[in-house]
């Protein structure tokens, strides 16, 4: 299964423009980039649940992981701590990363998340 089969990707152009006019938390805007139907969210939850024991806090934060999939929620937090990085830059980077993954298969041996290792 490829990423594009589970997420309704929005290029983020509209989201990035709206961010400067009406600031919202970056993670809420990022979730709009990767919207999912309830059926797709259930498939993502099933996929991520297989790896939850290997990721501290994933089980407790599963709703957040599902909403942001394939974006790891902590990757946003890492970027937000960099003082010269604006929220619009974060959203553009996330948009580019998700776009790059769309035709890729979701790995069977890992969660398939854009994580903080992708950031550095």
Describe the structure.
The chain starts with 7 loop residues before the first strand and ends with a helix. It has 120 residues and is mainly alpha-helical. The longest helix is centred in the last third of the chain and has 15 residues, at 87-101. Strands 1-2 form a two-stranded antiparallel sheet. It has seven helices and two strands. The protein has helices spanning 13-21, 26-33, 38-49, 62-68, 73-80, 87-101, 116-119, and strands at residues 8-9, 34-35. It has one domain. The model has no long low-confidence stretch (mean pLDDT 84).
Largest sheet: 2 strands, antiparallel
Number of strands: 2
From the spread of the alpha carbons, the general shape counts as globular
Element string (H = helix, E = strand): EHHEHHHHH
Mean pLDDT: 84
Helical run tally: 7
Distance between the termini: 27 Å
Question: What percent strand?
Answer: under 5%
Supply the helix-strand structural class: mainly alpha
What order do the strands of the largest sheet run in, or round the barrel if closed? 1-2
The stretches of 5 or more residues where confidence is low (pLDDT under 50) are none
How many domains is the backbone divided into? 1
The value of Rg in angstroms is 14 Å
Please estimate the helix content. Answer: 40-55%
Helices and strands, with pairings:
Blueprint: E1 8-9, H1 13-21, H2 26-33, E2 34-35, H3 38-49, H4 62-68, H5 73-80, H6 87-101, H7 116-119
Antiparallel strand pairs: 1-2
Explain briefly what this protein structure is.
With 120 residues, the protein is mostly helical. The protein is 52% helix and 3% strand. It has one domain.
